[in-house]
Automatic annotation (TrEMBL):
Single Gene Ontology MF annotation: metal ion binding
Pfam families linked: HMGL-like
Tree of life domain: Bacteria
Keywords linked to the UniProt accession: Lyase, Metal-binding
Protein's UniProt name: Hydroxymethylglutaryl-CoA lyase
Biological process terms in GO annotation: ketone body biosynthetic process; L-leucine catabolic process
Family, similarity comment: Belongs to the HMG-CoA lyase family.
Stored PANTHER family: HYDROXYMETHYLGLUTARYL-COA LYASE
Length: 314
């Protein structure tokens, strides 16, 4: 399912040699599906993603099952994929209860998820922004004491459906707070996909100026306005080497109605291969995985690369 010799690898200046893809399809993608995907299909999806060469695969969330019913099978799913060789399987935990559940199953990487805005903190976590940070503090401390790797998401870094444009200083404050409580890495979420490349560069520079180095930053772009790849390219030029993406472009957020799919992993890999940047991913296998998942979901993948390469086969 690839085109021999394409894309041609033509490196460009000032870009990293390698990018780590943080695959979120099984979590960000499936949390937003109307129908609930059977647990065994999810497990097979994760296994196929691993076979395609992805080494960081966000598996599920230990959130309240009523808040995200699509991921209510976290207890059943995690043990089915936990043994995958050489693969990190981060999971989302919103609070102590979530961390208890993740630890009970042997998870080694967890992510807390904050918001740069009050409105989304309330909609997504039922807490004010500062209340949610206060909830995360003991969660992160306990996770670090247990030797876990902790990611801190920050949603609505560029714009918010209720509050409009989000000032950079507001995002920087939340990022600093998450670093101060001990998060190892941060992921900058463009939850509703409104960022543009200049804005991305402005935020990354502001974070550096306030003592948050680029090597702890990942970017998490949703593709609502078709800007996700352009934004990613800007972030790479700034030195970011961790990029979140979702196989087949699945995704969204049930608590932000204007959020659509994430940057598709295949579209990202196509661009990175063209730039001669190593990801360790086998594009053909990945496309086959997303085509398989699209069949299970009963609709075509929104990824341009999946569609182009799937048609080539017929
Ligand atoms: P709440 O209703 O305020 O919960 O929800 P509570 O603390 O008042 O507790 C109420 C009951 O829920 C209690 O049970 C708790 O034990 C239970 P009771 O005593 O009444 O029997 N409970 C739990 N049960 C299971 N697992 C738990 C848990 N916590 C409490 N973890 C809560 C607060 C945080 C739980 C809720 O708001 C929630 O689950 N929110 C999750 C929302 C979510 O998952 N959103 C999507 C992920 S974020 C995202 O997609 C953005 C991202 O992709 C980046 C980007 O794009 O920007 C990451
Ligand atoms: Mg997201």
């Amino acid at each position: 399912m690839t085109v021999e010799g394409l894309p041609m690898a033509v490196p460009a200046a000032n870009l990293p040699a390698r990018v780590r893809i943080h695959e979120v399809g099984a979590r960000d993608g499936l949390q937003n599906e109307k129908s609930t995907v059977p647990t065994e299909v999810k497990a097979e999806f994760v296994r196929r993603l691993a076979q395609a060469g992805l080494t960081t695969i966000e598996a599920t969330s230990f959130v309240h099952p009523k808040w995200v019913p699509q991921l209510a099978d976290a207890e059943q799913l995690f043990p089915l994929v936990a043994g995958l060789e050489g693969v990190h399987l981060p999971v989302l935990v919103p609070n102590d209860r979530g961390l208890d559940r993740a630890l009970a199953l042997g998870a080694r990487r967890v992510a807390v998820f904050a918001s740069a805005t009050e409105s989304f903190a309330k909609a997504n976590l039922n807490r004010t922004l500062d209340e949610s940070l206060a909830v995360f503090e003991p969660v992160v401390r306990r996770a670090k004491d247990e030797g876990l790797h902790v990611r801190g998401y920050v949603s609505m870094c560029f714009g918010d459906p209720w509050e409009g444009p989000v000032p950079v200083h507001q995002v920087v404050r939340v990022c600093r707070a998450l670093r101060d409580i001990g998060c190892d890495e941060l992921s900058l979420g463009d939850t509703i996909g409104v960022a543009t490349p200049g804005h991305v560069l402005e935020l990354l520079s502001a974070l550096n100026e306030e003592g948050v180095p680029t090597n702890v930053l990942g970017v998490h772009f949703h593709d609502t306005y078709g800007q996700a790849l352009a934004n990613t390219y800007a972030a790479l030029q700034h030195g970011v080497t961790t990029v979140d993406a979702s196989a087949g472009g699945l995704g969204g957020c049930p608590y932000a109605k204007s959020a659509t799919g994430n940057l598709a992993t295949e579209d990202l890999v196509w661009m990175l291969q063209g730039l001669g940047i190593d990801t360790g991913v086998d594009l053909g296998r990945l496309v086959a995985t997303s085509a398989w998942m699209a069949e299970r979901l009963g609709r075509p993948s929104p990824s341009r690369t999946v569609r182009a390469l799937s048609h080539k086969e017929q």
